[in-house]
Structure formats: structure tokens, C-alpha cells
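We modelled each protein-ligand pair independently. The example shown here corresponds to the coenzyme A entry; the chain sequence is given first, followed by the ligand as SMILES.
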Amino acid sequence: MESIAIEEVQTGSAEYNQVYDLREAILRKPIGLSLADEDLSADKNDIILAAQIGEKVVGCIMLQHKDASTIKFRQMAVAEELQGKGVGNEIMTAAEALSKDKGYTKVVLHARETAARFYSKLGYNITSPLFTEVGIPHYVMEKDI
Ligand SMILES: CC(C)(COP(=O)(O)OP(=O)(O)OC[C@H]1O[C@@H](n2cnc3c(N)ncnc32)[C@H](O)[C@@H]1OP(=O)(O)O)[C@@H](O)C(=O)NCCC(=O)NCCS
């Protein structure tokens, strides 16, 4: 596989538009929802990381400040044709390293039940009962970094 670059992107950029399209295709359309119906005005407060092969965004994650020690990871997605090839792991590793650099000591995320195994392999622990978000089952998962 061609090498992957993981870089921060700004809202309003061409890369952000590609991140939007990826989120829509991977995280919303399959569950019958659309980002067009959501208020995305807080996106600009997040650190947005895009995994790119050449000019093409193939993965993303968004990092949201919760408090001085805790950062929330959200909107983790990998393009369908590249899933299962290690891209998700690369994105999570980069996001954790950046969070640590910024002084955070804990990551929290809402894992879809179907993705919980992916996060547990990376050292995340389930810390909540199953709950519903965007109409589907999730767990709160956490990791000290
Ligand atoms: C979940 C997702 C982000 C994982 O990214 P990925 O690039 O496919 O994952 P990787 O190839 O880096 O996999 C890393 C490990 O996790 C495992 N894994 C990946 N997705 C998994 C899943 N859904 N369930 C169980 N295990 C999974 C892989 O088998 C691999 O295991 P290994 O290290 O033992 O070989 C990606 O598949 C995706 O975008 N899925 C659809 C959207 C989604 O569910 N996003 C998360 C919302 S909380």
C-alpha cells in the first residue's frame, strides 16, 4: 500500500470537505442519517486528523477537548476499501501521540458496539453499560495515555 500521511486539517479546507464526505459515507449513510441534519459548528474547536494517500483522504478522527486531562476521540472512520489494513490503528496511534504531546492523560470515546473490539485491542476499556447514540448501541471506552 502507498504510504499514508496523517495530518491536521482545518475546517473550511478542501481536506476538511473530504473528511466530511468520508464521515457521511462511513458513519452516517449506512445508518440512514446525514451530517446535513446535524449542527457541525463545533467542528472548528476540534483537532481534525486526516489520513491521506496522496491527495485522497482515506481516514479521519476528531479530537475534542473535555477538560485539562481528558480528550474525546470521535468520528473515527476508514474508507471502506481500506478497512482491515491497519489504517485505523495508525490513526489511533497518531491521535494518542498528539494528545499526549498536548498534555492530556486520558482518552474517552463512544465506541459503536461493532467497533468495541478494535478499541479493546488498542488498550481501551469499556466503562459504561451499552447505550444508544445515533440510534445504535455504543459503549463508553477509556484509556490512560
Ligand atoms: C472500525 C474502523 C475505524 C477500524 O479501522 P481499520 O483500519 O479497519 O482497522 P485496522 O485494520 O487498523 O485494525 C486493527 C485491528 O482491529 C481489528 N478490527 C478492526 N475493525 C474491527 C471491528 N469492527 N471489529 C473487530 N475487530 C476489528 C483488526 O482485525 C485488527 O486486528 P489485528 O491487529 O489483530 O490484526 C474501521 O473499520 C471503520 O471505519 N469502520 C466503520 C466505521 C466505524 O465503525 N467507526 C468507528 C465508530 S466508533
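The mean pLDDT is 97.
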